Amino acid sequence: MQTISLTIDDELFRMLESLTAALHVTKAAVMSHAVQLLWQQQMVGLLEEQHRQGYLRHPVDADEFQTDDSRLAWGD
């Protein structure tokens, strides 16, 4: 476990204080959770961009996702 020191503006500090009081957790727990959420958001964004780039390089063929609609009929 590492110890860090950081400077935040007064409004952000008040928000942090409010969260710690409401959730009954430490400032470190709130900050750790915030960093984890930001990391996850960044990773999702990166994966989505990789996915988008992949489809730009290899577009979907017109018949790639076609289904045989006759299999979906209820029948008589």
CA-CA gap between termini? 67 Å
Global Rg: 24 Å
The total count of strands amounts to: 0
Main sheet specs: none
> How much strand content do the residues show?
under 5%
Label the structural class: mainly alpha
Mean pLDDT: 92
Globally, the shape reads elongated
How many alpha or pi helices? 2
* Uncertain stretches: none
**How much helix, percentage-wise, in residues?**
55-70%
**SSE string, helices as H and strands as E:** HH
Descriptive report:
- With 76 residues, this protein is mainly α.
- The protein has a domain at 29-59.
- 59% of the residues lie in helices and 0% in strands.
- It has 2 helices and no strands.
- Helix 1 (10-23) crosses helix 2.
- The model has no long low-confidence stretch (mean pLDDT 92).
- This is CopG family transcriptional regulator.
- It comes from Candidatus Moduliflexus flocculans.
In short:
The chain is mainly α.
Topology, pairings included?
Blueprint: H1 10-23, H2 27-57
Helix pairs in contact: 1-2
Primary descriptors:
76 residues; mainly alpha; 59% helix; 0% strand; CopG family transcriptional regulator
